[in-house]
User: Fold this.
Amino acid sequence: MAVTSSSERGSWNSKLGFILAAAGSAVGLGNIWGFPTKVATEGGAAYLIIYLLCTFLIGFPVMVAELSIGRKSGKNPVGAFKALSSNKFFPLVGLWGVICGVVILSFYTVIAGWAFGYAFEEIFYFLGWDSAAAWLTDTGNGPKNALIASVFMFGTIKIITGGVSDGIEKATKTMMPLLIGIIVIMIGYVLTQPGASEGVKEYLLPDFSRINAGLIFSAMGQAFFSLSLGMGALITYGSYLSKKENIPQAAALVTLADVGIAFLAGLMIIPAMYVAQAAGIEIFVGDQLASSTDLVFQILPALFHTIGGVLGLVLGVVFFLLLSIAALTSTISLLEVPVAYVIDEHNVPRKKAAWGVGLGILVISIIVSFYPSLIGTFDNIFNNLGLPIGGLLMCIFVAFVWKTDSALSEMELGFEGVKQTLFAKVWPVFIWIICPAAIAYNIISNFL
Ligand code: PFF
Assistant:
Protein backbone atom coordinates (compact mmCIF):
# COMPACT_ATOMS: atom_id res chain seq x y z
CA MET A 1 0.00 0.00 0.00
CA ALA A 2 1.32 3.40 -0.87
CA VAL A 3 2.30 5.58 2.00
CA THR A 4 1.68 9.29 1.80
CA SER A 5 2.87 11.76 4.36
CA SER A 6 0.16 13.63 6.22
CA SER A 7 1.58 16.96 5.06
CA GLU A 8 1.00 15.84 1.44
CA ARG A 9 -2.58 14.84 2.24
CA GLY A 10 -3.52 17.97 4.21
CA SER A 11 -6.40 18.47 6.59
CA TRP A 12 -9.19 20.92 7.33
CA ASN A 13 -8.31 24.07 9.26
CA SER A 14 -11.30 23.91 11.55
CA LYS A 15 -14.54 22.15 12.25
CA LEU A 16 -16.45 24.84 10.41
CA GLY A 17 -13.97 24.46 7.58
CA PHE A 18 -14.89 20.82 7.10
CA ILE A 19 -18.61 21.45 7.26
CA LEU A 20 -18.29 24.27 4.77
CA ALA A 21 -16.22 22.17 2.41
CA ALA A 22 -18.58 19.19 2.60
CA ALA A 23 -21.58 21.50 2.22
CA GLY A 24 -19.74 23.17 -0.67
CA SER A 25 -19.38 19.76 -2.28
CA ALA A 26 -23.05 18.97 -1.70
CA VAL A 27 -24.52 22.31 -2.77
CA GLY A 28 -24.06 22.86 -6.45
CA LEU A 29 -25.71 22.33 -9.80
CA GLY A 30 -27.51 19.34 -8.31
CA ASN A 31 -29.54 21.68 -6.12
CA ILE A 32 -30.22 24.49 -8.55
CA TRP A 33 -30.14 22.75 -11.93
CA GLY A 34 -30.74 19.05 -11.24
CA PHE A 35 -33.41 19.14 -8.56
CA PRO A 36 -35.82 21.70 -10.07
CA THR A 37 -35.42 20.10 -13.52
CA LYS A 38 -36.37 16.73 -12.10
CA VAL A 39 -39.27 18.13 -10.07
CA ALA A 40 -40.56 19.77 -13.25
CA THR A 41 -40.16 16.73 -15.48
CA GLU A 42 -40.98 13.90 -13.10
CA GLY A 43 -43.80 14.63 -10.74
CA GLY A 44 -43.92 17.98 -8.93
CA ALA A 45 -44.68 17.75 -5.22
CA ALA A 46 -44.81 13.94 -5.36
CA TYR A 47 -41.19 14.03 -6.50
CA LEU A 48 -40.30 16.48 -3.72
CA ILE A 49 -41.71 14.16 -1.05
CA ILE A 50 -39.94 11.05 -2.33
CA TYR A 51 -36.74 13.07 -2.68
CA LEU A 52 -36.94 14.21 0.96
CA LEU A 53 -37.59 10.64 2.13
CA CYS A 54 -34.60 9.36 0.12
CA THR A 55 -32.38 12.11 1.51
CA PHE A 56 -33.17 11.57 5.17
CA LEU A 57 -33.78 7.83 5.25
CA ILE A 58 -31.13 6.65 2.81
CA GLY A 59 -28.73 9.53 2.15
CA PHE A 60 -28.03 10.65 5.70
CA PRO A 61 -27.16 7.17 7.09
CA VAL A 62 -24.91 6.51 4.08
CA MET A 63 -23.19 9.86 4.61
CA VAL A 64 -22.35 8.90 8.20
CA ALA A 65 -20.98 5.58 6.92
CA GLU A 66 -18.84 7.23 4.23
CA LEU A 67 -17.37 9.80 6.60
CA SER A 68 -16.55 7.09 9.16
CA ILE A 69 -14.77 4.95 6.56
CA GLY A 70 -12.81 7.99 5.41
CA ARG A 71 -11.76 9.21 8.80
CA LYS A 72 -10.83 5.79 10.16
CA SER A 73 -8.68 4.91 7.15
CA GLY A 74 -7.34 8.38 6.31
CA LYS A 75 -7.34 7.29 2.66
CA ASN A 76 -8.89 7.75 -0.76
CA PRO A 77 -11.85 5.45 -1.62
CA VAL A 78 -9.69 2.60 -2.99
CA GLY A 79 -7.08 2.80 -0.23
CA ALA A 80 -9.79 3.09 2.43
CA PHE A 81 -11.35 -0.28 1.60
CA LYS A 82 -7.88 -1.85 1.43
CA ALA A 83 -6.97 -0.38 4.81
CA LEU A 84 -10.10 -1.57 6.62
CA SER A 85 -10.28 -5.17 5.41
CA SER A 86 -8.36 -7.76 3.44
CA ASN A 87 -11.37 -8.40 1.22
CA LYS A 88 -10.31 -8.08 -2.42
CA PHE A 89 -13.68 -7.01 -3.81
CA PHE A 90 -14.31 -3.76 -1.95
CA PRO A 91 -11.35 -1.77 -3.31
CA LEU A 92 -13.13 -2.26 -6.67
CA VAL A 93 -16.14 -0.48 -5.17
CA GLY A 94 -13.79 2.41 -4.42
CA LEU A 95 -12.51 2.25 -7.98
CA TRP A 96 -16.07 2.34 -9.33
CA GLY A 97 -16.57 5.50 -7.27
CA VAL A 98 -13.45 7.03 -8.80
CA ILE A 99 -14.76 6.21 -12.29
CA CYS A 100 -18.21 7.70 -11.52
CA GLY A 101 -16.46 10.85 -10.26
CA VAL A 102 -14.43 11.14 -13.46
CA VAL A 103 -17.45 10.84 -15.74
CA ILE A 104 -19.71 13.07 -13.62
CA LEU A 105 -17.02 15.75 -13.56
CA SER A 106 -16.70 15.58 -17.34
CA PHE A 107 -20.30 16.69 -17.90
CA TYR A 108 -20.58 18.77 -14.74
CA THR A 109 -17.99 21.23 -16.05
CA VAL A 110 -20.01 21.71 -19.23
CA ILE A 111 -23.16 22.64 -17.28
CA ALA A 112 -21.10 24.77 -14.90
CA GLY A 113 -19.80 26.52 -18.02
CA TRP A 114 -23.38 27.32 -19.05
CA ALA A 115 -23.98 28.91 -15.65
CA PHE A 116 -20.76 30.90 -15.84
CA GLY A 117 -21.54 32.03 -19.38
CA TYR A 118 -24.94 33.30 -18.30
CA ALA A 119 -23.33 35.74 -15.84
CA PHE A 120 -21.85 37.47 -18.90
CA GLU A 121 -24.99 36.97 -20.96
CA GLU A 122 -26.82 39.13 -18.43
CA ILE A 123 -24.29 41.93 -18.98
CA PHE A 124 -24.42 41.65 -22.77
CA TYR A 125 -28.21 41.62 -22.68
CA PHE A 126 -28.20 44.78 -20.56
CA LEU A 127 -25.83 46.50 -22.97
CA GLY A 128 -27.97 45.46 -25.93
CA TRP A 129 -25.21 43.31 -27.44
CA ASP A 130 -27.72 40.78 -28.63
CA SER A 131 -25.55 38.58 -30.79
CA ALA A 132 -22.90 38.16 -28.06
CA ALA A 133 -25.69 37.35 -25.57
CA ALA A 134 -27.22 34.85 -27.99
CA TRP A 135 -23.83 33.18 -28.48
CA LEU A 136 -23.59 32.56 -24.74
CA THR A 137 -27.12 31.19 -24.43
CA ASP A 138 -26.64 28.57 -27.13
CA THR A 139 -26.14 25.44 -25.01
CA GLY A 140 -25.59 23.40 -28.18
CA ASN A 141 -22.60 25.45 -29.34
CA GLY A 142 -19.65 22.99 -29.10
CA PRO A 143 -16.67 25.38 -29.32
CA LYS A 144 -18.26 27.77 -26.82
CA ASN A 145 -19.12 24.94 -24.42
CA ALA A 146 -15.59 23.56 -24.70
CA LEU A 147 -14.01 26.95 -24.12
CA ILE A 148 -15.92 27.76 -20.94
CA ALA A 149 -15.71 24.18 -19.62
CA SER A 150 -11.93 24.43 -20.05
CA VAL A 151 -11.80 27.67 -18.07
CA PHE A 152 -13.78 25.94 -15.36
CA MET A 153 -11.55 22.89 -15.32
CA PHE A 154 -8.39 24.99 -15.12
CA GLY A 155 -9.85 26.87 -12.15
CA THR A 156 -10.65 23.58 -10.43
CA ILE A 157 -7.18 22.14 -11.06
CA LYS A 158 -5.54 25.31 -9.81
CA ILE A 159 -7.41 25.15 -6.50
CA ILE A 160 -6.79 21.42 -6.06
CA THR A 161 -3.05 21.86 -6.55
CA GLY A 162 -3.10 24.22 -3.56
CA GLY A 163 -4.31 21.45 -1.23
CA VAL A 164 -7.59 20.83 0.45
CA SER A 165 -8.30 23.57 2.89
CA ASP A 166 -7.66 27.17 2.00
CA GLY A 167 -9.50 27.78 -1.25
CA ILE A 168 -12.44 25.51 -0.57
CA GLU A 169 -13.12 26.69 2.97
CA LYS A 170 -12.92 30.37 2.08
CA ALA A 171 -15.00 30.17 -1.08
CA THR A 172 -17.85 28.36 0.65
CA LYS A 173 -17.97 30.60 3.69
CA THR A 174 -19.04 33.67 1.72
CA MET A 175 -20.89 31.96 -1.09
CA MET A 176 -23.46 30.00 0.87
CA PRO A 177 -25.20 32.84 2.78
CA LEU A 178 -25.14 35.08 -0.31
CA LEU A 179 -26.65 32.37 -2.46
CA ILE A 180 -29.44 31.76 0.04
CA GLY A 181 -30.07 35.52 0.27
CA ILE A 182 -30.43 35.98 -3.45
CA ILE A 183 -32.66 32.93 -3.86
CA VAL A 184 -34.95 34.23 -1.12
CA ILE A 185 -35.18 37.63 -2.86
CA MET A 186 -36.04 35.89 -6.13
CA ILE A 187 -38.69 33.75 -4.44
CA GLY A 188 -40.24 36.93 -3.04
CA TYR A 189 -40.32 38.42 -6.52
CA VAL A 190 -41.60 35.33 -8.32
CA LEU A 191 -44.41 34.65 -5.87
CA THR A 192 -45.95 38.08 -6.49
CA GLN A 193 -46.10 37.57 -10.27
CA PRO A 194 -49.11 36.37 -12.28
CA GLY A 195 -49.15 32.61 -12.77
CA ALA A 196 -46.99 31.83 -9.71
CA SER A 197 -49.75 30.22 -7.67
CA GLU A 198 -50.13 27.42 -10.19
CA GLY A 199 -46.42 26.67 -9.79
CA VAL A 200 -46.66 26.71 -6.00
CA LYS A 201 -49.49 24.17 -6.22
CA GLU A 202 -47.45 21.99 -8.57
CA TYR A 203 -44.49 22.14 -6.16
CA LEU A 204 -46.29 21.71 -2.84
CA LEU A 205 -49.55 19.83 -3.44
CA PRO A 206 -48.68 16.22 -4.17
CA ASP A 207 -50.54 14.07 -6.66
CA PHE A 208 -49.62 10.65 -5.30
CA SER A 209 -50.79 8.89 -8.44
CA ARG A 210 -47.66 10.23 -10.15
CA ILE A 211 -45.39 8.10 -7.93
CA ASN A 212 -43.99 5.11 -9.78
CA ALA A 213 -40.78 3.07 -9.83
CA GLY A 214 -39.14 5.45 -12.30
CA LEU A 215 -39.85 8.49 -10.14
CA ILE A 216 -38.50 6.83 -6.99
CA PHE A 217 -35.38 5.67 -8.82
CA SER A 218 -34.73 9.15 -10.15
CA ALA A 219 -35.32 10.80 -6.75
CA MET A 220 -32.94 8.35 -5.10
CA GLY A 221 -30.23 9.07 -7.67
CA GLN A 222 -30.82 12.78 -7.21
CA ALA A 223 -30.49 12.44 -3.42
CA PHE A 224 -27.15 10.65 -3.80
CA PHE A 225 -25.91 13.16 -6.36
CA SER A 226 -26.96 16.17 -4.37
CA LEU A 227 -25.39 14.91 -1.15
CA SER A 228 -22.22 13.88 -3.08
CA LEU A 229 -22.67 10.28 -1.93
CA GLY A 230 -21.88 6.87 -3.36
CA MET A 231 -18.61 7.67 -5.11
CA GLY A 232 -16.31 8.20 -2.16
CA ALA A 233 -16.18 12.01 -2.18
CA LEU A 234 -17.10 11.94 1.48
CA ILE A 235 -14.68 9.10 2.18
CA THR A 236 -12.03 11.40 0.75
CA TYR A 237 -13.23 14.49 2.63
CA GLY A 238 -13.62 12.39 5.81
CA SER A 239 -9.99 11.32 5.44
CA TYR A 240 -8.95 14.94 6.08
CA LEU A 241 -11.24 15.23 9.11
CA SER A 242 -9.83 15.59 12.61
CA LYS A 243 -10.53 12.82 15.13
CA LYS A 244 -12.10 15.41 17.42
CA GLU A 245 -15.09 16.04 15.15
CA ASN A 246 -18.58 14.73 15.71
CA ILE A 247 -19.41 12.79 12.53
CA PRO A 248 -23.21 12.37 12.90
CA GLN A 249 -23.59 16.05 13.75
CA ALA A 250 -21.45 17.18 10.81
CA ALA A 251 -23.41 14.87 8.48
CA ALA A 252 -26.71 16.27 9.78
CA LEU A 253 -25.61 19.86 9.17
CA VAL A 254 -24.42 19.11 5.65
CA THR A 255 -27.64 17.25 4.83
CA LEU A 256 -29.81 20.09 6.13
CA ALA A 257 -27.86 22.75 4.22
CA ASP A 258 -28.14 20.71 1.04
CA VAL A 259 -31.84 19.95 1.33
CA GLY A 260 -32.62 23.51 2.39
CA ILE A 261 -30.99 25.02 -0.68
CA ALA A 262 -32.57 22.48 -3.04
CA PHE A 263 -36.00 23.18 -1.55
CA LEU A 264 -35.56 26.94 -1.95
CA ALA A 265 -34.30 26.53 -5.51
CA GLY A 266 -37.44 24.54 -6.33
CA LEU A 267 -39.62 27.19 -4.73
CA MET A 268 -37.98 29.76 -6.97
CA ILE A 269 -37.87 27.85 -10.25
CA ILE A 270 -41.10 25.84 -10.41
CA PRO A 271 -43.37 28.90 -9.88
CA ALA A 272 -41.05 30.86 -12.21
CA MET A 273 -41.80 28.37 -14.98
CA TYR A 274 -45.49 29.19 -14.73
CA VAL A 275 -44.77 32.92 -14.47
CA ALA A 276 -42.70 32.67 -17.63
CA GLN A 277 -45.49 30.75 -19.33
CA ALA A 278 -48.05 33.39 -18.30
CA ALA A 279 -45.69 35.98 -19.83
CA GLY A 280 -45.84 34.13 -23.16
CA ILE A 281 -42.57 32.14 -23.02
CA GLU A 282 -42.89 28.63 -24.36
CA ILE A 283 -42.28 26.26 -21.45
CA PHE A 284 -44.65 23.43 -22.31
CA VAL A 285 -45.44 21.87 -25.65
CA GLY A 286 -48.79 20.19 -24.96
CA ASP A 287 -48.25 18.84 -21.47
CA GLN A 288 -44.57 18.08 -22.11
CA LEU A 289 -41.75 20.44 -21.16
CA ALA A 290 -40.16 22.11 -24.14
CA SER A 291 -36.66 21.35 -22.83
CA SER A 292 -35.10 19.38 -20.03
CA THR A 293 -31.35 19.70 -19.39
CA ASP A 294 -31.31 23.41 -20.15
CA LEU A 295 -34.75 24.21 -18.68
CA VAL A 296 -33.35 26.13 -15.70
CA PHE A 297 -31.09 28.10 -18.01
CA GLN A 298 -34.10 29.30 -19.97
CA ILE A 299 -36.30 30.14 -17.01
CA LEU A 300 -33.83 32.08 -14.89
CA PRO A 301 -32.53 34.56 -17.47
CA ALA A 302 -36.14 35.16 -18.59
CA LEU A 303 -36.91 36.02 -15.00
CA PHE A 304 -33.99 38.43 -14.62
CA HIS A 305 -34.90 40.05 -17.93
CA THR A 306 -38.50 40.64 -16.83
CA ILE A 307 -37.24 42.31 -13.65
CA GLY A 308 -35.16 44.40 -16.04
CA GLY A 309 -33.07 47.53 -15.49
CA VAL A 310 -30.05 47.70 -13.23
CA LEU A 311 -31.78 45.57 -10.57
CA GLY A 312 -32.39 42.72 -13.03
CA LEU A 313 -28.78 43.02 -14.20
CA VAL A 314 -27.29 42.95 -10.71
CA LEU A 315 -29.48 40.08 -9.52
CA GLY A 316 -28.75 38.10 -12.69
CA VAL A 317 -25.01 38.59 -12.67
CA VAL A 318 -24.63 37.92 -8.95
CA PHE A 319 -26.88 34.88 -9.10
CA PHE A 320 -25.00 33.22 -11.97
CA LEU A 321 -21.63 34.04 -10.40
CA LEU A 322 -22.73 32.49 -7.12
CA LEU A 323 -24.06 29.45 -8.96
CA SER A 324 -20.67 29.15 -10.69
CA ILE A 325 -18.89 29.29 -7.32
CA ALA A 326 -21.29 26.68 -5.91
CA ALA A 327 -20.47 24.51 -8.93
CA LEU A 328 -16.75 25.14 -8.40
CA THR A 329 -16.84 23.92 -4.78
CA SER A 330 -18.48 20.76 -6.16
CA THR A 331 -16.06 20.24 -9.06
CA ILE A 332 -13.26 20.58 -6.52
CA SER A 333 -14.60 17.60 -4.59
CA LEU A 334 -15.30 15.65 -7.77
CA LEU A 335 -11.69 16.11 -8.90
CA GLU A 336 -10.29 15.55 -5.42
CA VAL A 337 -11.51 11.92 -5.46
CA PRO A 338 -9.43 10.65 -8.42
CA VAL A 339 -6.56 12.96 -7.46
CA ALA A 340 -6.42 11.60 -3.88
CA TYR A 341 -6.52 8.10 -5.38
CA VAL A 342 -3.52 8.81 -7.63
CA ILE A 343 -1.60 10.52 -4.79
CA ASP A 344 -2.19 7.73 -2.26
CA GLU A 345 -2.12 4.63 -4.41
CA HIS A 346 0.43 5.60 -7.04
CA ASN A 347 2.63 7.88 -4.98
CA VAL A 348 2.34 10.81 -7.38
CA PRO A 349 2.90 14.34 -5.98
CA ARG A 350 -0.27 16.42 -5.63
CA LYS A 351 0.52 18.93 -8.34
CA LYS A 352 1.32 16.33 -10.96
CA ALA A 353 -1.71 14.24 -10.00
CA ALA A 354 -4.07 17.23 -10.22
CA TRP A 355 -2.83 18.33 -13.65
CA GLY A 356 -2.64 14.82 -15.09
CA VAL A 357 -6.08 13.72 -13.94
CA GLY A 358 -7.70 17.12 -14.55
CA LEU A 359 -6.47 17.43 -18.13
CA GLY A 360 -7.45 13.82 -18.84
CA ILE A 361 -11.00 14.55 -17.69
CA LEU A 362 -11.01 17.76 -19.72
CA VAL A 363 -10.65 15.66 -22.87
CA ILE A 364 -13.95 13.91 -22.03
CA SER A 365 -15.50 17.31 -21.18
CA ILE A 366 -14.61 18.59 -24.61
CA ILE A 367 -16.33 15.62 -26.23
CA VAL A 368 -19.43 16.29 -24.07
CA SER A 369 -19.23 19.97 -25.08
CA PHE A 370 -19.77 19.01 -28.69
CA TYR A 371 -22.36 16.33 -27.93
CA PRO A 372 -24.41 17.71 -24.99
CA SER A 373 -26.96 14.92 -25.46
CA LEU A 374 -24.36 12.69 -23.80
CA ILE A 375 -25.19 14.46 -20.53
CA GLY A 376 -28.49 12.59 -20.16
CA THR A 377 -26.86 9.22 -20.88
CA PHE A 378 -23.93 9.80 -18.51
CA ASP A 379 -26.31 11.13 -15.86
CA ASN A 380 -28.41 7.95 -16.07
CA ILE A 381 -25.52 5.49 -15.91
CA PHE A 382 -23.01 7.11 -13.56
CA ASN A 383 -25.31 9.20 -11.41
CA ASN A 384 -28.81 7.68 -11.19
CA LEU A 385 -27.50 4.13 -11.26
CA GLY A 386 -23.82 4.42 -10.39
CA LEU A 387 -24.09 6.37 -7.14
CA PRO A 388 -26.85 4.28 -5.50
CA ILE A 389 -24.94 1.10 -6.42
CA GLY A 390 -21.84 2.59 -4.77
CA GLY A 391 -23.92 3.51 -1.71
CA LEU A 392 -25.45 0.02 -1.55
CA LEU A 393 -22.05 -1.66 -1.60
CA MET A 394 -20.70 0.75 1.03
CA CYS A 395 -23.60 -0.18 3.32
CA ILE A 396 -22.84 -3.86 2.79
CA PHE A 397 -19.19 -3.19 3.59
CA VAL A 398 -19.91 -1.33 6.81
CA ALA A 399 -22.64 -3.76 7.88
CA PHE A 400 -20.92 -7.07 7.23
CA VAL A 401 -17.21 -6.57 6.64
CA TRP A 402 -15.95 -3.64 8.69
CA LYS A 403 -18.99 -3.82 11.03
CA THR A 404 -21.19 -0.99 12.27
CA ASP A 405 -19.71 -1.35 15.74
CA SER A 406 -16.24 -0.43 14.41
CA ALA A 407 -17.78 2.59 12.70
CA LEU A 408 -19.43 3.61 15.98
CA SER A 409 -16.06 3.26 17.75
CA GLU A 410 -14.61 5.67 15.17
CA MET A 411 -17.48 8.10 15.80
CA GLU A 412 -16.94 7.77 19.57
CA LEU A 413 -13.60 9.65 19.21
CA GLY A 414 -15.37 12.92 18.48
CA PHE A 415 -18.72 12.10 20.05
CA GLU A 416 -18.17 10.65 23.49
CA GLY A 417 -20.93 8.36 24.62
CA VAL A 418 -22.35 7.88 21.12
CA LYS A 419 -22.71 4.15 21.75
CA GLN A 420 -25.22 4.84 24.52
CA THR A 421 -27.42 7.07 22.36
CA LEU A 422 -30.55 6.27 20.37
CA PHE A 423 -28.54 7.05 17.25
CA ALA A 424 -26.31 4.03 17.94
CA LYS A 425 -29.37 1.78 18.07
CA VAL A 426 -31.11 3.16 14.99
CA TRP A 427 -28.30 3.93 12.55
CA PRO A 428 -27.00 0.33 12.35
CA VAL A 429 -30.49 -0.91 11.46
CA PHE A 430 -30.51 1.51 8.53
CA ILE A 431 -27.08 0.34 7.39
CA TRP A 432 -27.82 -3.38 7.82
CA ILE A 433 -31.29 -3.51 6.33
CA ILE A 434 -33.22 -0.38 5.47
CA CYS A 435 -30.76 1.41 3.16
CA PRO A 436 -29.48 -1.63 1.25
CA ALA A 437 -32.97 -3.09 0.88
CA ALA A 438 -34.47 0.21 -0.27
CA ILE A 439 -31.66 0.88 -2.75
CA ALA A 440 -31.69 -2.65 -4.17
CA TYR A 441 -35.49 -2.70 -4.38
CA ASN A 442 -35.57 0.63 -6.21
CA ILE A 443 -32.92 -0.36 -8.70
CA ILE A 444 -34.59 -3.68 -9.45
CA SER A 445 -38.14 -2.33 -9.66
CA ASN A 446 -37.00 0.45 -11.98
CA PHE A 447 -35.57 -2.10 -14.37
CA LEU A 448 -38.56 -4.41 -14.16
N1 PFF B 1 -23.38 17.39 -4.93
C1 PFF B 1 -23.02 18.09 -6.13
C2 PFF B 1 -24.23 18.88 -6.60
O1 PFF B 1 -25.32 18.73 -6.05
O2 PFF B 1 -24.10 19.64 -7.54
C3 PFF B 1 -22.51 17.17 -7.20
C4 PFF B 1 -21.50 16.17 -6.72
C5 PFF B 1 -20.32 16.61 -6.14
C6 PFF B 1 -21.77 14.82 -6.81
C7 PFF B 1 -19.41 15.69 -5.66
C8 PFF B 1 -20.87 13.90 -6.32
C9 PFF B 1 -19.70 14.35 -5.74
F1 PFF B 1 -18.86 13.49 -5.28
User: Anything to note?
Assistant: The chain is about 80% helix and 0% strand.
